[in-house]
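User: I've been going back and forth on whether these two constructs are worth ordering. Before I decide, could you fold them both?

Assistant: Sure. I'll take them in the order you sent them. The first construct and its structure tokens:
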Amino acid sequence: MAAESIASLLGVSFWYPEAERPALREVDLELVAGELLLVCGPSGCGKSTLLRLLQGIVPQLSGGDLAGEVRVLGLDPTRLRPHDLATAGVTLAYQNAVEGFVAQTVADEVAFGPESLALPRDEVTARVRSALEDVALAPASRRALATLSGGEQQRVALAAALALRPRILLLDEPTAHLDERSATLLLELVDRMRYLHRMTVVLSEHRLGTAAPRADRVAVLVDGALAALGPPREALAGRSLARLGVPVPRATQAALGLGLEGAAPLTADELAARLAGRVPRASARAPAGPSLSGDAALGVDLQGAAPRAVGEVALGFEEVSFRYPGAGTDALSGVSVALRHGERVALTGSSGSGKSTLARLALGLRRPTAGSVTVLGMRDADTGTLARRVGLVLQNPMHQLLAETVADEVALGLRDRSRAEARRLADGAIERFALGELLRRHPLSLSEGQRRRVALAAVVAREPELLVLDEPTLAQDEEQRAALAALVRELAGRGTTVLAITHDREFVNDACERVVALRGGRIAADLPLGGDRARLEALEAAGIPLADVPATVLALGRAGAVMSARTLDELAAVFP
């Protein structure tokens, strides 16, 4: 029996008000009942627009011009109120759960949707209970949302969506703010819920290595047009996709670069299984320069910077503890760690492990309860003293964008420089972060990825000696992530110390030389990154997620292969 069509787009193009280019271009797409459709592509490719179109927000609330025909559950979402579509069974969950919350407690948040549909009180109560049981949060029903971890907050957002009993669930990058383990658990939960409740799921994601194996089909959008559509191992096998900014899993990119025949692998385990019969060279190093293989961009060069002598301590924590007022336990406890000038260090750990607290202490935004913090030779200095020499890019750029235009935002921190120097630094940052077309836009009118680039440009323009990046790759596509990794290596080569707080295992591998892991407010591991089996086993034993190439090397090493590689070009050199 033919699969039931539940939604369709026929020749759909859409222009936002005053936009020079369409957000969607001639899209033909049919959504099949019960499937999980993964939508991916570069930043700004039209993923969020597609989801909002299916939910009726576009064009009704956004404005703009629409061409073509859209049908969802037999209805025209461009003419019905989003409230009516929610009643019919279409629910959209946004990327950042916190920004979408309207209540104070878990139960009240989950109840908000059913209450908005004017359902009877008994029905609302039953739906809240059922949804929280589905996501394993029933015991937390009375907890304040602000006390939950990032993963728990995303589960609340999912429960709120499930309480509406959707036939079509639209998820806009639900794992963007989660660590690797929490992201995996959330996507496993979504997959279980779609079978349990017989839902159709449209999932927009950048984490394709985690999401693609669970998808029935993948729709790849590039510049608003449908570039590929089909089963994951076929849709993601285009050799040019990574170069266009599509976050194709590195395992897939490696298989393409190595010319492996057959279905493309999506994970490191699948790639290792495909390579198991091939005999590698003992070891190889890729030449310095851009990391390319065939037509696809296969990563970045990690060996390009010249070796540096170990510098003096730029950021030092000595037996530091910190407890927030009113808290029953320490956010950090007995932390001792040092970063030297020119080091590139990743700070990892699950939500609530103390990463952001450590960053606040490093920037003088908080004072330690015990111990001392030394920044650029200054002990326990205040924020004002540190401001000119230390830079911070927050996880949510909306918290630090202050000016009326992008151009003014980039120049904001350069007022103490001469006019000529300020112009030189601002122009360099604008060019580096490709902001030329956005200079007259208000920063808050931009997409999340664009706002993040503006925040980065404004901070990097000041040439800080210590740069703290809080989840810098959120909402960034493959090309932008590679450019950011290159920037980190370049800044470190000039002597800037970079501390990157990140859940992005590929970015850790691409940009950093050392990783510090926090667990429960304590240092759980402080290890150098590398591509040999001994280092990889140490990282794995510490619970640090490995990027695809290192994970493949470790799997092959345990099967008897003697090799070392971190980048895709290094892997290609090992398997000529």
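The second construct, handled the same way:
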Amino acid sequence: MSLDLVAQTYYVPLPEDDLMKYVFQPVEPKYKEGKSSRKNRQRASGDVVSLVSITVSTDGTTVWYDHHEDGFDIDADSTEVWGDGNPGNGCAPGVRPCTSDTDVLVAGQVLVLENTVELAYTGNTYYPTAIDRVETGSFKYDGGDRVQASKPIAVTRGAYPMAPGSVLGGGVEMLDTFSWGTNFVAPIGTDSGNFELTMFFVMAAVDGTVVTIKPKSGSDSTYTLNQGGSVQFPLEEGDELSSTEPVQMDMSAGSYKELRWYSVLPIEDWYTEYLAPVGNTRGKVKVRLFNPDSSSLTIKMKEYGQRDKTYTLSARAGAWSDTIDTGNGALFSADKPFSANSIVDTGGNVFDWGYPLIPTNKLTPEVIIGWGYGCTDKEFCVKKHGNDDVRSEVYVSPTKKANIYVDYDNDGIVDKTYTGVNALQGITISESNDEFGSSADRDMSGARIWANDFSDSSKHVDIAAAWGQNPDLSGGGDSSALDLGTVVVPFLSIAAQKTAVVRTVASNTFIDYTIQVSNVGSGVIVAGGVQITDKLDAAVRYVADSFVYTVGGNAESVAAADFPLTGAGLANPAAFDGRGGQHTMTFTVRVIDTSVELIYNGGVAKFGNQEALFGVYTEVESGGNSPTLFRQGNPTNPDEAPTDVTEDEDDETEELCY
């Protein structure tokens, strides 16, 4: 497999042995009979139930699952390849029989990789280490693995110890490597209140990554990580972290029998506005706000149906919001960037979970649910609330009045429509017996949810979403409840890629480029909705009038002496059909600097808040020949009569798709 097929790369965070040692055991206690001292608590024990949920957004996706135990090599025997039509390298878990016809992945397909990861204990200690599985080859789906995909996917990480079970569970949204960063600030600490332990996990994708911790008090410390390696340490609110290469950071905020997991954005991605889709009066849902600036900051809270509230935060300090009530969403805004993280159940330990708020400049009109079980066992929920037997639901709130559509199975069929949902109003969505009777699977995994403007269905409306336990549907000692939740990462409804072919004609070297922009979302994108720009390398010059724009097989040449995608670029001249509509652009450049051996050309397709990056590195060898995608003729003079040119293949091109 070559890198030109990879659109996204993820690394599974939170290794199981570290979770047991630094998260589950410190916060899960059972008092020994007749004892009440905290020193006599019995810690969590046993193995760890580990879960990685992968949701496919687009037909024809290929996924590579690379186990970390024997190193990272996408072509190794231990790397599982799903959806490439080659049964020789296996099929996705659960696909039987495995044939070339069944080795396919389709939109809405959910790969729930759930297994028990055995832990080894030394003596009578509570500090386990993962069993070495390299010699046996019995690799598990666990922390440290790498997941790559040819088209956008949604990935969720979850885990809980065998004892006491899912009541001490955690779930976190996974971010692909393009969302990683090099500068972080801890947005929550034990000094924030509500938490006894805040543990941060950092994972690298590049060997030799140096991570530096800069606490508010005390000395700096450094760690060196290799690809897939991670390190953990407690931080307080406002502590800083930097790294020499991009890393991902996840946080576990815990206290007595309570866990809340969060992905942490690099500080350069913090923003001035966030939308919280989860409100619940019984759960006393609040948001922890943190001001990283050296001066005070006033943050406004606009809750649906309520009067606005304001909070003034001192320099590099935090504050708790008021409770967001059931059925409400809330918008937090300021004139400088800050962070916002939600906490569900601020008053007890029955239905505790949390999620990071997504900045509004990152929201999109569509989401796809990764892990979305309605109960611990998605096939069976013990009824405690009549017919409403699910415990976990999806929470959605729009940025303006909208119609919200739900496709439970992501099969292209709208299963339910919520009409006229007001801006900042919160709704909860589940597939329960109330609605579907015996056919309900109580599982929102893979569901696609999107929104259009209430007054004009051709316009899209951004939404915020989260999945987690509903306090109104849960009770104490509820074995059917997953005591966890995650934010639902916005789904990018456009994708783009660029390829190149090098050829030589009459001692001149030319590169033929192809750009493909696709609508992988559910709604139609109208003409002019996407702005496409591309920047040519200084070593090449555009061949006049070579640009061709193709929609649905209909090609249209664009007569232009200058490159049409330069500067402000070009808006799509025709609409993109939903769920697979594709536009193709081709053009030719001539290499004018023959001393350059590696040429890069890249650009971006923009749709609202969304940006689909595309780029390609092309290796040019002096005198090398390759097949042409350009019409036969002299490319320096398109009007010249065609000539016969014999050319051989040259595959020394590395495409980088995003």
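Notes on the second construct follow. The CA atoms of residues 264 and 351 lie 22 Å apart. Residues 30-40, 623-658 have pLDDT under 50 and may be disordered.
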